[in-house]
Amino acid sequence: MNLLGFKTLFCKEVLRFWKVLLQTLVAPVITVLLYFLIFSHVLEGRVEVFPGVGYSAFLVPGLMMMSVIQNAFANSSSSLIQSKITGNLIFILVTPLSHFELFLAFVAAACVRGVLVGVGVWVVAVWFVPLSLVHPLYLLLFAVLGSAALGALGVIAGIWADKFDQLAGFQNFIVLPLSFLSGVFYSIHSLPDFWQTLSHLNPFFYLIDGFRYGFFGVSDVSPLLSLAVAGAFLLLLSGIAYGMLKTGYKIRD
Amino acid sequence: MSAIVLDGLHKHYGPVHALKGVSLAVEEGEFFGLLGPNGAGKSTLINILAGLTRRDTGRALVLGHDVAREYRVTRRLLGVVPQELVFDPFFSVREVLRIQAGYFGLGRENDAWIDELLEALKLTDKAQANLRTLSGGMKRRVMIAQALVHKPRVVVLDEPTAGVDVELRQSLWDFIRRLHREGHTIVLTTHYLEEAEALCGRIAILNQGELVALDEKQALLAHGIGRSRRLCVTTRAPVVALPEALKPRLRRQEGNRLEFELVRETDSAVAVLDALRSHGAEVVDFATEAADLEDVFVELTRRRPS
Ligand SMILES: Nc1ncnc2c1ncn2[C@@H]1O[C@H](COP(=O)(O)OP(=O)(O)OP(=O)(O)O)[C@@H](O)[C@H]1O
Ligand SMILES: [Mg+2]
């Protein structure tokens, strides 16, 4: 393994968003904070999803995971499409970095951004609502699995998309709906049967449900099931992304 | 051992057959010129070596290693300066070079070499500048530095002097010559016959994906390639009757503009001007230019039995 090579690409990818952190870290935290303030203001006291857990507290893990997911996806996908369109991707393609090292560096940087935004949301949220932390290990596990999976999805989308609007389409028609319809704002038990069944097909649901389990020790489905689904989801997306890098699909045509 | 071996290399882009079975070998220590008109397949060939493009069939080796199967080895041996001017707008010149070295597993121990490259390419005072703020010629030099940052044994330059002013071209030539003296194998593509003539030992000519000539520079020149020169003369009034001696050399005449084709070693431009003047024509301007590659390709393709 070309460890220094991997580390260089990883650090470069981190530096890339760090240099514009207002846009890549601060802005997403503020967006999520607005969701939080509005929804918790409207619904606090009216809805109790889990016994003993207020709505505002219930909302925080979902919002955290949603921002982890969206920002991890944004990081790898935007980096790839930008360097594809400006052409500077070649500087990476001519190096001895292996397909796997490339993949790992993009995904790891996406994880860092996702987790940083998640932490940012948490830091702000605890000012407004007291939060328990029942299973910190689960929390970490789901944050890493979720951001890695979406980082891998970002690699797929960034390689596949030829134009920025195709990438925006990917984001608006896949990532955004799936993350909104995954039980961020509600427990899926409150949904009609049909929508409950449908939610169970959404991998993001398991990411958020498992993540929430880390906070409260209660969840809609078993955290082990969520863990298994999240792991399988990550493996599937990683396999596709790795395959695309290996065959050079669209980047070494 | 050969620095580069290509063997029956084919490449299609959809319906375009960009390389039609190209085979050639470049020996270690050579200064090799790869010439050809637009769309001949030069960049395609280089991109296959660099791993930026996949071949369909055939073999491509760098110092005996297959560029696809052993890419981790060949990419350390090879430094490629791509044709397109591209850059990473997020970083400064020094950052970009450090990052590029890092990809090859080189850390701070490589900083001295980076300084040397900056110095040699006259970029030292731009080291802290963001790539965005550099001129085109400076960006081109940064790309050259990036390709050399891991001290590759084989250096491939895809039109390094395109769009570069005369002074810079000269200093780039000096720099590339120095790399060659220091033992690097150099492969260079260019559209300027002069450039290939000034620098290269052997020259390959590619046309429509096929190798149409491959020989020592002198041998190619002896075949008449690059021997002709064009002389354009403007006279005050149109020349009505041309001196007999000049007629075989005339290629074109438009109003008061005359265009002659001269053989470089035997014909003298001054003699042509003298002949015109003694014939009563008043020369107001003249210029000579090298035959361009197009002429050479036409000539070569004509000569090839097909
Ligand atoms: N990515 C690509 N997709 C489709 N066709 C391509 C691609 N790259 C090159 N081609 C085609 O392959 C042929 C060879 O192109 P190439 O860039 O290798 O030529 P070249 O000799 O480098 O020309 P130039 O002197 O203009 O740089 C051309 O017909 C070109 O249109
Ligand atoms: Mg080219």
| Structural domain count of chain A | 1
Largest sheet data of chain B: 6 strands, mixed
Strand order of the largest sheet of chain B: 6-7-8-3-9-10
Strand segment tally of chain B: 14
Query: Can you say what the CATH homologous superfamily of the largest domain in chain B is?
Result: P-loop containing nucleotide triphosphate hydrolases
Number of separate strands of chain A: 0
- Strand and helix order of chain A: HHHHHHHHHH
Please tell me about this protein's structure:
- The complex is a heterodimer of chains A (253) and B (306).
- Chain A is mostly helical.
- Chain A has one domain.
- Chain A contains 10 helices and no strands.
- The longest helix of chain A has 32 residues.
- Chain A is globular.
- The two termini of chain A are 25 Å apart.
- The mean pLDDT of chain A is 94.
- With 306 residues, chain B is of the alpha/beta class.
- Chain B folds into 2 domains: 221 residues, Rossmann fold, CATH 3.40.50; 63 residues, Alpha-Beta Plaits.
- Chain B is built from 10 helices and 14 strands.
- In chain B, the strands form 3 sheets. A 6-stranded mixed beta sheet of chain B has the order 6-7-8-3-9-10, sandwiched between helices. Chain B has a 4-stranded antiparallel beta sheet with strand order 2-1-4-5, covered by helices on one side. A 4-stranded antiparallel beta sheet of chain B has the order 12-13-11-14, covered by helices on one side.
- The longest helix of chain B has 16 residues.
- Chains A and B meet through helix 1 and helix 4 of A and helix 2 and helix 3 of B.
